Hints:
The chain has helices at residues 40-49, 61-64, 67-73, 85-92, 167-180, 196-219, 225-232, 241-257, and strands at residues 4-10, 19-25, 31-33, 53-55, 77-81, 98-100, 105-108, 111-117, 126-132, 145-149, 184-187, 261-263, 268-270. It is an alpha/beta fold. It folds into 2 domains: 4-194, Ribonuclease Z/Hydroxyacylglutathione hydrolase-like (Metallo-beta-lactamase, Chain A, 4-Layer Sandwich); 204-270, Arc Repressor Mutant, subunit A (Orthogonal Bundle), CATH 1.10.10. It starts with a strand and ends with a strand.
Amino acid sequence: MDRIASVSIPVSGPAPTGTTNAYVIGRSDALLVDPAGESDDLERALDRRSPTAVLATHTHPDHVGALARYAREYDLDVYTRSGYEKRFERATGVKPDANVRDGDVLPAGDFDVEATSTPGHAPDHVALTIGGVDATPRSEVRNGRVLVGDLAVAEGSVFVGPPDGDMRGYLTALRRLHARGPAELLPGHGPAIDDPRAVLRRLIAHRLDRERTVLAAVRNGHETPEVVVETAYEKDLSGVRDLARRAVIAHLEKLAVEGSIEWDGERARPVANC
Length: 274
């Protein structure tokens, strides 16, 4: 039996692959992560591993859909990101038993699981580095396999935009993870990522390329997100135009904070001498 079980669970809504990966870490006294929905396969994995706790990488519906049920059914300790307890309770209907801070290490059978704050896609987002027996020596947990939720995907990109998204935070989280040199990334959607640094560099470059096109559009006199979208994206936006518009807003907010543009929430204008 593998020490980490991954179960792909069909979900409704805008999940990029139509499924979310739930993980059960450890062969006994396991940690359940991101129970997106009810699943016979997930329940078989839980029955074999005697879970003791549950944690979500973030509280978007496609990651916590069955958290309440499994917490109750398996009598799990419920953890959430420190500072976001009320958000967690609203999303899940469950009052957490304890919170997790950046750098905290949780037991998961014979693994250590270190939580890292990675806001950007969502403000309460965490990544989980897995160390211990057959993974990474406990003294080197920072370089182990990392369960990244919606921080990274093997192909394509991750949505970052209002109301939850913060582009500055997202890029910081990608760079922080890249600097740690993880061995493998286990994402919330899609297959495992066996070349983490290359994928993280690609995601960073993608965002910076988009930022340059957004800034160029503003400097060329395009003021509203609806107009900027038309010049910042070269691909067909049928069915995803609103997501693209919201991503543009996240870029505009970042550029405004950094002093590259003026942005009042509706219109953007270039800053002189920038």
